[in-house]
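Annex B.
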Amino acid sequence: MKALKIGITCYPTVGGSGVVATELGKRLAEKGHEIHFITSSLPFRLERAYANIHFHEVEVNQYQIFRYPPYDLTLASKMAEVTEMYGLDLLHVHYAVPHAVSAALAKDMSGGNVKVMTTLHGTDITVLAHDPSLQNIIRYGINRSDKVTAVSRFLVNQTRDQLDIARRMEAIYNFVPPNISVPANAHAIRQRYGIKDEEDVIVHMSNFRPVKRVEDVVRAFRYIRQAKPSKLLLIGDGQERHSIEKLVEAEGLQDDALFLGNQSSIYELLSLADVMLLLSEKESFGLTALEAMAVGVPVIGTNIGGLPEVVRDGETGMICPVYDYKAAAEAALELLNDKAMHRRMAHAAKARAFSQFNSDTIVTKYENLYAEMLELP
Ligand code: GMT
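N-acetyl-alpha-D-glucosaminyl L-malate synthase BshA: predicted structure tokens.
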């Protein structure tokens, strides 16, 4: 297809939507498109320089007259400025609030030719759309977009029902690269973390928000460790970290639950694990589950949101009732105690990650939607 000029706006800090938006920008750049990130800071996964990736920082001035700095308006102005200066074909924004609304404004400001695609990631619908003061503006952002996608079928349905949206929305799943390399010396790395040969490794990775229910992960781990020698690797950081550290101490697990904080070599760390626990109460997709599956780690997940679309119950892991950490622990133990089942699920997890969530296929789906939106031949 012809090379496009694409503006991308996302939350650039640690989080699945920022990861997906940045990885999408990188893949599109590799396919020859010109990418313009219009964000409040450099997206954290943009580690190396690409000649056809530009970064435009949205800087909000703190004038005294403003009680609240108007980020949304400054973003709209910057989007309009970049659209005009570089002749953008489209703005692809991640999250309805405020990004879709700012993009609608930018489109009006820059003459109305630029197209707007909005990708919904979850929190804007599963949390913010419950707030009556935001419902109308979220609906407006969605309805003013030329195309709308969501990261799971669950999220498409939830958006339709919750906001009474009649327009067409497409589910386009999140993705992982097809060429992930994991270290051959996993055993040596496990030793570096003090993991003994006979120990199983359970991993959890998230931003430690309350919806991630990290306390259930710790409680499930307590059961697992009573039955088997094991270690828990906790990757990530966030508002709940301190209370989780306290819980780990109260449960006497401090020698076996390792807090690794935010990490960049996530595939290397995930590949050390035997099973992932993702016991969230809200999850429109569950990118970390997919990242674990991609390196052959089966996932124990909860029966909420889009997670069952990623983790196939009994095939690539197991799905348990939300809040039932005992059931999660029992599922993990069943898997860890049955080597043949573990091998089968690890293999199926990896195969599913690459067949259903391969970046090559998913990025092409976005390109096809861009072409449709721009009415390209
Ligand atoms: O889950 C979070 O707290 C972060 C949030 C985000 O904005 O990155 O994640 C959402 O988007 C991810 C990427 O599409 C999804 O994998 C997560 O499931 C989704 N989180 C929720 O729905 C709670």
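The radius of gyration is 21 Å. The longest helix spans residues 339-356. Further annotation is deferred to the next reporting cycle.
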